[in-house]
Amino acid sequence: MAQTLLKVQGLKVAYGGIQAVKGIDLEVREGELITLIGSNGAGKTSTMKAITGSIDLLEGQIEYLGQTIRGQGAWDLVKAGLAMVPEGRGVFTRMTITENLQMGAYIRSDRADIAADIDKVFALFPRLKERRDQLAGTMSGGEQQMLAMGRALMSRPKVLLLDEPSMGLSPIMVDKIFEVVRDVHAQGVTVLLVEQNASRALKIADRAYVMESGLLTMQGAARDLLVDPRVRAAYLGE
């Protein structure tokens, strides 16, 4: 069995008096594409923020490469190979596309390899190459999502966390984003994908977790959940 890269145990997260995550366990093994699906407000983004240390845990443990990462800063996590593309993209709006990609490699000093990796991102996203000197704030939402994904890849992550990458995008752009997620995974990057578009996520994932009201209610092979009547009724509009 492949090595477990990321392990979450007994995770609880609260905002004020409201408990957003109520004690969940999940794991991501090397080489997998895992998806966490659920409706808006289920606790998916809170889970991702807890993993990356941007919100505090109420209870629980998070291990990466067998070591606890609770309380570690984002800088340390990126250096260790854990990169996140947040919901809402978070690009540097007053920087160019190229400058944003260079920022993604801030932990690296290998200039020739950084330049080569920027070319790889441009190969994944030809639209970014065409606009390489354009300010990120002048781009469409879909283009900014491409840039946010490209910037995360510049750190050469072992595990890429994607939080709602298709949210608010046109159908054509959604197709492109899922195509890239599949390509990135095929290149050997382990992926944890949080996504409201359950059908699309389940079609490309290896395994899946279903989250409802802060709890994981189902898990298993993505292909099995895709045909499960409960999943189809709740998330696929059937």
Report strand %.
25-35%
Low-confidence stretches: none
Mind telling me the CATH superfamily name?
Answer: P-loop containing nucleotide triphosphate hydrolases
Give the overall form: globular
C-alpha Rg, in Å?
17 Å
Q: How many domain modules?
A: 1
Main-sheet strand order equals: 6-7-8-3-9-10
The CATH topology turns out to be Rossmann fold
SSE topology string: EEEHEEHEHHHHEHEHEEHH
Averaged pLDDT: 93
Percent of residues in helical segments? Answer: 25-40%
The main β sheet shows up as: 6 strands, mixed
How many E strands?
10
CATH class: Alpha Beta
Structure, explained:
By secondary structure, this protein is an alpha/beta fold. It has one domain: P-loop containing nucleotide triphosphate hydrolases (Rossmann fold). It is 38% helix and 27% strand. It contains ten helices and ten strands. The chain has helices spanning 44-51, 74-80, 97-104, 111-124, 126-130, 141-153, 171-186, 198-204, 222-226, 229-235, and strands at residues 4-15, 18-29, 33-37, 59-64, 67-68, 82-85, 159-163, 190-195, 207-212, 215-221. The strands form two sheets. A six-stranded mixed β-sheet has the order 6-7-8-3-9-10, with helices on both faces. Strands 2-1-4-5 form a four-stranded antiparallel β-sheet, covered by helices on one side. The longest helix is centred in the C-terminal third of the chain and has 16 residues, at 171-186. The radius of gyration is 17 Å and the shape is globular. It starts with a strand and ends with a helix.
